[in-house]
Each structure stands twice: as structure tokens, then as C-alpha cells.
Amino acid sequence: MKALLKSILVVALLTLCNFVYADDPLTVDPNGDFSKFTKEQLETIENNLLAGLESENSGLRISCAYFLGEIKSEKALIPLMAMLRNGACDEEKIVAALSLYKLDIGRGVYLVKGASKFADSERVRRMCGIFYDAYVWEQRHPNTDQVAMDTEQEYNGYVIEDFLVEQN
Length: 168
Prior knowledge:
Elements: H1 2-21, H2 39-52, H3 58-70, H4 77-86, H5 90-103, H6 106-118, H7 122-140, E1 146-148, E2 154-155, E3 158-159, E4 164-166
Antiparallel strand pairs: 1-4, 2-3
Helix pairs in contact: 1-2, 2-3, 3-5, 4-5, 4-6, 5-6, 5-7, 6-7
């Protein structure tokens, strides 16, 4: 019962922050601009998202993991690494890997690399491989806005047709 109340509180706080501080409460800034929040507000949001990772609700854990990656929360490194290793489902592991990639911290990226080779699920291995390959590409080409690939080119073992990745 306590976990349910905690989950409801986290969702309510996130919803309240969205309605109070967003210019258009039904949209998310695609550029990840968090400048409209004060440092204290961002810290509160970060703490609420971290608390959401402890929820019994898988959907809430996935959403919190995603947004921790969006705000680039360094406090989330260890919980996200644990989620990638021990997630209850493939979706949790994939979102944890995505957020670790977005955090751009060596230990997290190294775990994503390892998961691309040794994860139990083929789907998790494939997605982690894509995230790790994107990380390596960004390190080699830091000032490129877009990546266009040939239709015949292989990417992590898969042939890609008209693949375009936009870099932020």
C-alpha cells in the first residue's frame, strides 16, 4: 500500500510540474530545454524520478528511467545500471540502456557495451548495440548534426533501408 501511495505521489508531482511550469502543458520541449526550472525545482523533479524507479509499477519505472536520461541525472547512474542488469522486462532494460547512453558517463556506456554482447534477450542485445554504436559514432564525429547511411550498409549486423538518425 505504501508503494502505491508513493507511486501516485510521484505521478501527481510530475503532472503538477508539467502543468505549472510548461508553456503548453500538453507538449514536451523536444530540445530538452530545462532552463525554465530553478535549480531547486530540477532537484525536486530528479528526486521524484529517482523515487519512481523504486515503484512496483513497471510503466512508472520505465517513464522515470527515460526522463532521468532526458535531464541527464548523474544521481541516476547506479539505479539505471541496476535496472539494465536486473530489469523485470526487456522494455525496462532497453530504456535503462538508452538513458545510460544519454548520460554519457563512461561506466554506464561500458555496461551498455557489455549488454550488447551478453544480455539474455536478443532484443536487448540489439538495442544496446545500436546505442553503443551511436555513442562511438558521436565520439568520432562530434560536430555532425545528421547521419545518413547507405541502404546496403550493415549496422550492428542488420541491413538498414533509408536509415536516418538525427543528432541533438
